[in-house]
Amino acid sequence: MSKASTLDDAFYVLVTGANSGLGLGIGARLIDEFLQTRPQDESLVLIITTRDQRKGDAAIAALGEQLRKVCRKAEKKLPGVSQVLQRRVQLRQERLDLLSLVSVQKLSKKLRDTVPKLDVVICNAGIGGWTGINWLLAFRTILTSWKTSTTWPTFKLSGVGWTTKPQLPPAADGSEREEPPLGEVFCANFFGHYLLGHYLAPLLARRSQTKQALGRLIWTSSLEAYEHTFDIQDIQCLESTEAYESSKRLTDLMAITSVLPATEPHVNKYLDCEQPSEKITKPRIYLSHPGITHTPIMPLILVLDYAWMLVCYISRWLGSQWHVVTVDKGAVAAVWLALAKQSTLDTMEQREGVGKWGSAIDVRGNERVERTEVEGWGWGGEIGERPRKYGRSPYAKTLTPQSKENFVREGEQCWAELEKMRLDWEKRLDEAGVGVSME
Ligand SMILES: NC(=O)c1ccc[n+]([C@@H]2O[C@H](COP(=O)([O-])OP(=O)(O)OC[C@H]3O[C@@H](n4cnc5c(N)ncnc54)[C@H](OP(=O)(O)O)[C@@H]3O)[C@@H](O)[C@H]2O)c1
């Protein structure tokens, strides 16, 4: 690390679920883009989380190899630069199981004790919760409407009613403690990260002495965050036959409304920013999605996995802007949100409104970041905004004042419900003697 760059003013990024698929792609792209775009005196501390040490070691080895690759490339152009670049990146691994609230608390406490600040947290980890595929429907829809059916598929079969293992230990007499069910897909895709964001908010809020950027909490959504899959009465998607899609809709609702006045009291509590001071700034929640990327999220036997990859490439060649296919390209939106100048993000939001940023691609394979329509919010929540021609979901509807009002109201209800749920679980964990104090 260069003299000018102490650990305290290094750029700290946490990426969850970094041993596989997009998480690994995000880590690799982040190293690459950071070294290419940031000044020589800035360094990156990349903290990745995995569920076990073996996966963590493998991910660190893969990211180390990526770093060496970037260095070798740079060395060819500028001899001697490789050592400088190598010193600018520090990799660290941690354990996190989003299905265990205690695991979320333990990691948060450890980071609060050992890290001076966090600039970005990328909430990438997640599960599909699918049990298989309706093959007949898959063949029929792919052959009749290739691009649409491979972008917004209707043929995935979802598990229903899946819950996490008990969060509380048995009572002193060995009996099981009573606890409410916690939806597995909801917890892996949303609630675990929701708690993580809350506990890490003080690290995200620590203002850098030199930079004006806000701490960024980047939530991962999907193109499949359909309005019709979400029911606020079943916020944990326990009864839903589309739990994955429902959890992603919740992500959209809460991320977008997080900057609106209607949710401010909840969000201030969540981000621990009820009493702003000069030393801290309220972090920002940003919303991204990776397009359609070929990853192990849908487990398939090898031959079908290759067939799916081919189907995805064909969709791209047919003009689908969302079939980014590779994890490197799928990572473009999240990495851009992590590294973009604050002024760039602010200007774009002033121009286009707050919205969802997705990874997109052209037929030749050039990736880009593309604003993505959200049902009930449009691209930026502006009534009368001009609909974009490409990349619209089959469920897309023109934004109306009524649909926008419903969106904001539902977002506010979700924030109220999630804050209630967070406090309830914290109390339960504390009473059972397993809650981790953040003091
Ligand atoms: N692939 C796509 O086309 C696509 C599209 C839209 C959105 N996404 C989103 O992108 C994110 C990454 O997905 P992916 O496609 O890269 O899938 P993936 O390859 O299966 O990666 C998922 C990652 O999440 C981790 N994870 C799963 N459950 C976890 C838990 N309980 N606690 C901690 N980590 C956990 C996995 O760890 P293990 O290896 O230990 O299971 C893995 O590292 C997800 O949020 C997904 O919804 C993906």
Structure description:
This protein is an alpha/beta fold. It has a single domain (96-431), classed as Rossmann fold (3-Layer(aba) Sandwich), CATH 3.40.50. It is built from 14 helices and ten strands. The strands form two sheets. An eight-stranded mixed β-sheet has the order 3-2-1-4-7-8-9-10, sandwiched between helices. Helix 1 links the parallel strand 1 (11-15) and strand 2 (44-50). It starts with 10 loop residues before the first strand and ends in an 8-residue tail after the last helix. It binds NADP nicotinamide-adenine-dinucleotide phosphate. The site of NADP nicotinamide-adenine-dinucleotide phosphate has 26 residues, from helix 1. One of its GO terms (biological process) is ergosterol biosynthetic process.
Instruction: Give the class from helix and strand content and strand pairing.
Output: alpha/beta
Number of helices: 14
Largest sheet: 8 strands, mixed
Report the bound ligands by name, code or SMILES: NADP nicotinamide-adenine-dinucleotide phosphate
Uncertain regions: pLDDT < 50 for 5+ in a row? Answer: 1-6
Distance linking N and C termini: 31 Å
General shape: globular
User: What's the Cα radius of gyration?
Assistant: 21 Å
Q: Percent of residues in helical segments?
A: 40-55%
Strand order of the largest sheet: 3-2-1-4-7-8-9-10
Name the helix and strand elements from N-terminus to C-terminus, one letter apiece: EHEHHEHEEHHEHEHHEHHHHEEH
Which percent range describes the beta-strand content?
A: 5-15%
- Overall strand count: 10
In the CATH scheme, what's the topology name?
A: Rossmann fold
Overall domain count: 1
CATH class: Alpha Beta
Protein name: 3-keto-steroid reductase
EC number: 1.1.1.270
Family: Belongs to the short-chain dehydrogenases/reductases (SDR) family. ERG27 subfamily.
GO molecular function: 3-beta-hydroxysteroid 3-dehydrogenase (NADP+) activity
